[in-house]
Amino acid sequence: MSGLTRDILKWLQSLDLTTQIRNPKWDFSNGYLVAEIFSWYYPQEIQMHSFYNGESLAQKNKNWYLLKNFILRNSFDIKMEDVDGTIHCREGAAVQLVESMYEILTNKRVKKILPEIETDYTDFAYQQRLPMHARSTASKAVKNNLRLTEILADQNIITSTAKAQKIINDHIDHRRQERIEDPKRFGIKPSLGDRCVRRADLSQKLFSEPSHLTVTSDLQSELETESMKEETITREPSIQFKEIDVKQMDKSTFYQLPVQSY
Question: Which among 153, 129, 1, 135 has a CA at the least distance from the CA of 64?
């Protein structure tokens, strides 16, 4: 029963459930134990003869269809992401679902340490703990994060393709981040632009860094001297042009000439 706190374990044992909980990821998948827990607090709404303790996908869908309607009808603060993750045996989803049920049914808060990485029900946190050479490839990432029950539950090819494509895109982003964090491992050499020295703007440098100047006039004079230095370096020598007056011919004289005959 890894992942469950001591208070939740004591609470589950006090309910005297018909099935002993060994692994929450698998034991809560079909929804039978979830219905049994709710039946202790809502016996009029949850009746156990309507649920089946089976492992087939059809039995899971029937049980969770009733449970989802019950959750929505009572406006419980339970995320459907946790429910879907529990159905498809995603890592950590069943534990999160049981913790939400514990807080709702007992009006107590779960005392636990918040994880450093946000829970997204993928194997990203596990992959980060592995060495570089042992991390999964793109095909392995799809196999780990896309369950067969998800494909069977929703046989729409477009939806399945979109889920697989999202997993591959996330895998590519993680690999790109690894190359940025450890460029020596991948043999990445800095480009010419990366090797260039970046010089901050003069005005930003003077105002951002502590300066020995205390008078505004001194600061203004230093800015002017620096601008004059840059101007003398970058300004090209001035070139003077002499204006030339050109006398235009009077074209009216062409029309006054006599026409010669041959």
Answer: 153
